[in-house]
Amino acid sequence: MESLADKTSMSSRYQISGIVFLSVVILSLVYAGWWLNHWLEDAQKSPLQRVIVTGNRVHIGEYVIEQRIRQQHPESFFELDVNQVHQEIEALPWVHQASVRKRWPNSLNIHVIEEIASARWNNDSLLNQYGETFLAQLDDESLPNLFGPGGSEQTALRGYRAMQTLLNGANLRIVELYLSERFAWNLRLNNGVKLNLGRSEFVDRLQRFVDVYPLLKQQDRQVDYVDLRYDTGLAVGWKDANSKKQES
């Protein structure tokens, strides 16, 4: 018959074995965690191999985006902060929107929607197709120059588009558009003629100019400006041979 002492000794051995086993498991997990963390932090073992840029782009090259990422983020693929990269890419000139995602095992996919410049704004920025300002360099003389108070960007762009649509039929183009603090509209056209449209019914007043423009072109004098701030009719300022203004 097994003695009480033998049972106690066997129970103690089981407890010790269990404690040793549990300690080994814990130590193994700690070591595995340390090793994995060390491996993830080692950029040489898990580097970012490829930066893939997609999207229709004219003004910003893939090289610019890739170089910025590699310079700003030398860390490993696993440590790379996608949200931070996303913010940095959208801060680049000509980038309207961007999406960034990791692609296993070592690639970064970036899709870029580029800004489309619709006009220059107040000589210090550009307007995109939504009437939002952005800062970028652009050598394009065909863009109109729009001027207006802060916060009127979308109003100015909508007005420009509506009026340019009317002028297309007369083969005229808006070179400069001025929107005053009181929201009065003034234009300078590509033929040098200046138009004062006032604050209200500016599209209808511009239509009046388009209707009478064929008659003005037949005159032997050059038009300097046309004042359309009347319920009916208009006032025309002429240039003489000495570039002095005359009104009729």
Notable features of this structure?
alpha/beta, 248 residues, ten-stranded mixed β-sheet, Rossmann fold, three-stranded mixed β-sheet
Overall description:
The protein has 248 residues and is an alpha/beta fold. The protein has two domains: 50-114, Ubiquitin-like (UB roll) (Roll); 119-247, 3-Layer(aba) Sandwich (Rossmann fold). Helix content is 36%, strand content 25%. The chain has helices spanning 4-41, 62-72, 82-90, 153-168, 202-217; strands at 50-54, 95-103, 107-114, 119-121, 125-127, 133-134, 145-147, 174-179, 185-189, 194-198, 222-227, 235-239, 245-247. It has a ten-stranded mixed β-sheet, covered by helices on one side. The N and C termini lie far apart (134 Å). The mean pLDDT is 88.
Query: Total number of helical segments?
Result: 5
CATH superfamily placement of the largest domain: Cell division protein FtsQ/DivIB
Low-confidence stretches: none
State the separation between the terminal residues, measured CA to CA: 134 Å
The largest sheet is: 10 strands, mixed
Order of helices and strands: HEHHEEEEEEHEEEHEEE
Which structural category fits the helices and strands?
alpha/beta
**What is the total tally of β strands?**
13
Please state the overall shape, judged from the principal axes of the Cα atoms: rod-shaped
CATH architecture call of the largest domain? 3-Layer(aba) Sandwich
Please give the CATH class of the largest domain: Alpha Beta
Report Rg: 35 Å
Tally of individual domains:
2
